[in-house]
Here is the input.
Amino acid sequence: MTYLTQEETAQIIAVARKYNQTHALAIAVAFCLGLRVSEVLGIKSKDIFDGRISVKRLKRKDKFCTLQAIPPAMLEELTELAKQADGKLFTFSRQYADLFFKRYSKEAGIHPRLRHFHSLRHGIAMKIWDETKSLSAVQGWLGHKSAASSLIYLAENDTAKASAVAAGIKF
Here is the structure.
C-alpha cells in the first residue's frame, strides 16, 4: 500500500495536535479536501465564507473552486483561524509543512515511504474510490481536468485502476 488510510491520517493528526493545532488543521484540510500543500498554504481568511471555502487550485484552468463538503468541526476551526488571521491562514512554508509532516508521521509510526504531505492527497483519492467506485468522483474531488490524472492516484491499487478503466469502456 502506498497511500495513507483514513486511520493513519487520524494518527498523524492526533500526534500533530499534541504539538501544534494549526499544523493539525492544515493536515486535516489537505486530507479532507484533497488539496496539494501549496493549495492549503494559499488559503486566505477571506476564502472562508457562508460555511464554504474557496480554494485556488494549482493546475486548473478555472483557478478557484468552492468546496462545501467540509466537516462542521473543521469548518469551525477554519473560521476561528480566519478571524485571527490577516491574510493567509497558514503562514509556514511548503518546506516547513513537509518537515513537520515527516516528524508527526514518524511519531505516529507511519512507514517512511508515506511520510510526505502529498500522500494525504493519494489517501483521500483511494477513500473516495473505495466508497464510490467512481473515477469521476475522484476526478472531481481532486480537481483534475483529465480522468487520466486521477488514474495515477489509483495506481496503488491495480484492481481499482482496472475497474475504473473498464467502467469507462462503452460498447
